[in-house]
Amino acid sequence: MINIIICGYRDWAHQLYMEVRSEFIKNIPNYHAVYVDDKDYLDEAIQEHEPEYVFFIGWSWLVNKDIIENYKCICLHPSPLPKYRGGSPLQHQIINGETESAITLFKMDGGIDTGDIIFQKEFSLLGELQDILNRISNIGSAAVIDIIKNGYTSVVKQDEKEATLYKRRKPKMSEIKLEDFKEKTAEELFNKIRALQHPYPNAFVVCKDGTKLFLTNSSMGDESENN
């Protein structure tokens, strides 16, 4: 039995794992998929299962250097690397008005999303956030399955001249302030709201009594549509 570890903690990462596991059961029964959603269990899981590959799917924590050096560690990052390295890549892209992104799988090298690219495929950033996450899961699972079945024979080094780095967003950054309604377009606010739908800290406005009104959905239109 050949073990594969898939590390993730979001619903869409678990969905990807289930798709990979289903493929193993149907077509490659000599492989076994193990899901790890707890960073404190990772070292133990690797020692127990001695995996052929370790996939990190939207993983937010640093991985020990020993693991990266001794196992085939591959990370899925939802951006067209080397652009949008770092934290909260999906939210940053949508808020910045990007309409196209890419699923990138790369060999981990200990840097922040700096490893050689194994796979990259474009996908749309239009629609509700759950639709976008479903696209990531579907494309990502197919890519993971292909790597497991066929390996990879070529990689592409990232162009450092094209690299951009973003920090992980904090919940307080989800606030929409009164001045935002005067300074930003409807599309900019619409993008911020949908970028911060579940499972991320929702967009909100602070009311006069200090309570928060959360904005989980929105739509755009012009004044004539309401007449």
Q: Key terms for this structure?
A:
Rossmann fold, 2 domains, 33% helix, two-stranded parallel sheet, 10 strands, alpha/beta
Tell me briefly what this model is.
With 227 residues, the protein is of the alpha/beta class. The protein contains seven helices and ten strands.
Q: So what's the CATH class of the largest domain?
A: Alpha Beta
Assembly state (oligomeric)? single chain
The fold-level CATH name of the largest domain is: Rossmann fold
Order of helices and strands: EHEHEHEEHEEHEHHEE
- The low-confidence parts are none
Q: Whole-number radius of gyration?
A: 19 Å
What spatial order of strands do you see in the largest sheet? 2-1-3-4-6-7
Task: Characterize the largest beta sheet: strand count, sense, and whether it forms a barrel.
Answer: 6 strands, mixed
**Average of the residue pLDDT scores:** 95
- Classify the beta-strand content into a percent band: 15-25%
Q: CA-to-CA gap between the ends? A: 66 Å
Q: CATH superfamily of the largest domain, called what?
A: Formyl transferase, N-terminal domain
Q: Which geometry do the CA atoms define?
A: elongated
| Secondary structure tally: strands | 10
- The helix/strand class is alpha/beta
The number of helices is 7
The helix content, as a percent range, equals 25-40%
What is the architecture of the largest domain at the second tier of CATH? 3-Layer(aba) Sandwich
Domain tally = 2
How would you explain this protein's 3D organization?
By secondary structure, this protein is of the alpha/beta class. The chain folds into 2 domains: 2-166, 3-Layer(aba) Sandwich (Rossmann fold); 171-226, Methionyl-tRNA Fmet Formyltransferase, Chain A, domain 2. It is built from 7 helices and 10 strands. The protein has helices spanning 11-27, 42-49, 65-70, 89-95, 129-150, 178-183, 186-195; strands at residues 2-7, 31-36, 53-57, 72-77, 85-86, 100-107, 117-124, 165-166, 203-206, 212-215. Strands 2-1-3-4-6-7 form a 6-stranded mixed beta sheet, sandwiched between helices. β9 and β10 (212-215) form a beta hairpin. α1 (11-27) packs parallel to α5 and α4 (89-95) runs antiparallel to α7 (186-195). The longest helix is centred in the middle third of the chain and has 22 residues, at 129-150. The N and C termini lie far apart (66 Å).
